[in-house]
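User: My collaborator sent over this chain with a note saying "see what the structure looks like." That's all I know about it. Can you take a look?
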Amino acid sequence: MKLSSWCVFFFTALCFSVAVEAAPKGKRYGPLRIFMGQAKLMNGSIVIPAKNSGGQDLFVGVFCDKKLFNFTGSGFQWGDWERPLYSHEEKIVRDACR
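Assistant: Without extra context I'll predict from the sequence alone. Here is the result:
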């Protein structure tokens, strides 16, 4: 059975659109784009890859038991565990701890 060039084009376009939609886009929280689907549990906290508004990679940490928030700065060095200071940090903690 021979497929028309239109069918081949349509099938290719459909596959491409599914692949593009499956790529992780992350969810925007204030100035951060968070990739919850790639979160990992580490030492009792959730570590989530993220990007800041400048497109730089970083990690966000959430300690659900105490509702604490942390993130990496330059050189991927962790700061101190703190209560969320901004509303977008509170939303990240809430969503990560569901």
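A starting point for your reply to your collaborator: The longest helix spans residues 5-22.
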